[in-house]
Amino acid sequence: MISSSSSRPASAALVLSLIFLAAPLAAQSGPDVARAYRQAHEPALVRDFAELLSYPNRAFTPEIREAALYIRDEMRAVGVDTRLVEIEGGSPLILGELRVPGATRTLGIYVHYDGQPVDPNNWTHDPFDPTLYSGSMDAGGEPIAMPEDGDDVDPEWRLYARSAGDDKAPIAAILPVLRSFTESGVTPTSNLIFMFDGEEEAGSRNLGQYMEMEREILDEIDIWLFFDGPAHASGRPQITYGVRGAAGMEVTVYGALRNLHSGHYGNWAPDTGNVLAHLLASMKDEDGNVLIEGWYETFDPIGEEEQAALEAMPEWDEQLKEELGLVRTEGEPQSLPERLLVPALNVRGITSGNTGSLARNVIPNTAVASLGIRMVKGNTAPQLRQLIVDHIERQGFHIVEDDPDMETRLRYPRIAKVTGGMDGSIAARTSMADPFAQSIQAAASAAADRAFGPGSLVVAPGMGGTLPLYLFTEVAGKPAIVVPVANHDNNQHAPDENLRIANLWYAIDLYAQLMTMPATVF
Description:
Blueprint lengths: L1 E3 L5 H13 L7 H11 L1 H12 L8 H16 L3 E7 L5 E6 L7 E7 L18 E3 L9 E2 L13 E3 L8 H16 L6 E7 L9 H7 L1 H4 L4 E4 L11 E3 L1 E2 L1 E10 L5 E2 H4 L6 H10 L22 H9 L4 H8 L11 H4 L4 E8 L10 E2 L2 E10 L5 H14 L3 E3 L5 H6 L3 E6 L7 E2 L5 H18 L5 E3 L9 H6 L4 E3 L15 E3 H15 L7
Parallel strand pairs: 4-8, 4-9, 9-21, 10-20, 17-18
Antiparallel strand pairs: 1-2, 2-3, 3-8, 5-6, 5-7, 7-22, 11-19, 12-16, 12-18, 13-15, 14-16
Helix pairs in contact: 2-5, 2-17, 5-17, 15-17
């Protein structure tokens, strides 16, 4: 069943439109107004962010609808015509419209409000009880009380909670920007369509259907802005024109029919952990280059604009290696940005028996590896999966899709079960020559110059993470770029996820600049 949870609040949108029509030209620019509002309300904004973070938000759970209703109501309160669009069994999509009389451009703004699963036992604090720290935990920060009105707010404070960095921070920045505009009579220069996805961390499995349901509205959009992802590792702000795709698969190798005592059968029965280790080692060399035949012949090369942007990016590998405790990296001397533009193969996990206090003197009858594949534009999951399967066969393994029966076991000396890998998110990249994208880059550059100094914006052809960009660029045929704001060390997807308060302040500056950038017509 498809439904809209409530009718649109036409009165709020009408009031906002009348304010925009009646208000004289503001003496201050949109970014000036938003910054002044932020400076006058910093303690309240920190507390508001904490309240937003307190809502559990795992996709497809009953609790996520409560989070969606909270966001819907907050958006309505700042004058955005906002509603829930729902599919039975799915997480609600939050859709908001802010129409500006006379606007010649429509911006689509994508944010996801769902978060990764959590194991509270791995967190320092309850992941949905936001905790403010005087600085990063890793740097010796201590828990502090939420600020009261009138208190000074240190931009180096960090707020710890699930989705603090990925991806509720943009929502906490959008709201005060729009509130400041309403109170000061500032008019956005574009129509604004807000889409808040409740399933991104679960693969956005219903997003295509939601977009088809709302095609009439979404067709009006000229360019999509994805408010997600981290800043550059140097701390400088960045925008990126593409994302990698992702897929996962598992490989299981087999030994004896049952686990065997290593004293009685060691040096005789196949050692499955060792068999798997050799197989995995055959897939990558010691420098991290994938050895699978055809692996680097499967993707689209970058263009001249992307190559120029890549060469202009700051050299930061040495500082990042020091931060992460690394002496060498895969693919050296290629830099991290260069390595993000080729498909990657990583071992996500290996199981074969036990370790530590649970280790036993047995030869496990199976060993399993979980492989993570990161795709770039031009790749597909089935394409890369088949290359891996072909490689495993060339190593002398018989491939099966289910656990082998006795007949199969007695026929083939080496057997590997391959599962998964047929589905995955698709990589996407927008041309840097797109005129709408260039206008976004100019506005982002202006915001970065103001906050960090001239020339501080980092322009990246692509980023390493995955977002459902392809639904917008390939299916809907619209340009889309990623406009990140989170600190790069926000523990995204991990325990003790956090956001540095200075990054929230920058998000407010940036969004105000984007919403009031010159109304260029192409």
